[in-house]
Amino acid sequence: MYNTELPQDIPTRGPAKPVPYLISGVLLIIAIVFPLIVPMYARATPRVGGLPFFYWYQMLWVPIDAVLIGICYALTSREDRRRREVLKRPAAGSADGGSDDGGMSHGGGRGGGRGGGGTTDGGAGGGTTDGGAVR
Could you tell me if residue 45 is inside a domain? Predict the structure, then answer.
């Protein structure tokens, strides 16, 4: 049938920098913990628009949490992109200059169900590694 065994020791991301994850963790802790400290806002005054402090303080945390979570998402997404790009750059001592195709030219590519995977000439392999254009 199909070989479902994954190749071993092939990294998908480079090493992580802990700072973006640490900042995201602190922001998420703030977003979760502060609304849970009820004694801090369990009072009626000051009122805003007729609403007691207890209610408007909780409603105030909704947009604040949205902003904090958005910042966390941006930080972790940027770090993830950086870690993926590390693997796309050629190694300093490589003779062939590396490959910038994300590993697609090694047989797995866009090939069809028959043949040996991707070919560069669109021939019997069933697929191509030249952007998908079949000649």
Answer: yes
Looking at per-residue confidence, does 106 or 58 come out higher? Answer: 58
Both tokens of residue 34? 């502060």
Helices then strands, counting H and E runs in the chain, come out as 2, 2
H or E element at residue 82: helix 53-88
Number of domains in the chain: 1
63 part of a folded domain: yes
pLDDT tens sequence across 96-116: 544 444 444 444 444 444 444
What Rg do the C-alpha atoms of the chain give, in angstroms? Answer: 26
Print burial letters for 66-76: b (CB count within 10 Å at least 16), e (below 16).
Answer: eebeeebeebe
- Position 6 pLDDT exceeds 60: yes
In a domain, 4, yes or no: no
Report the mean per-residue pLDDT for the chain: 76
Between CA 112 and CA 60 the distance in angstroms is: 54
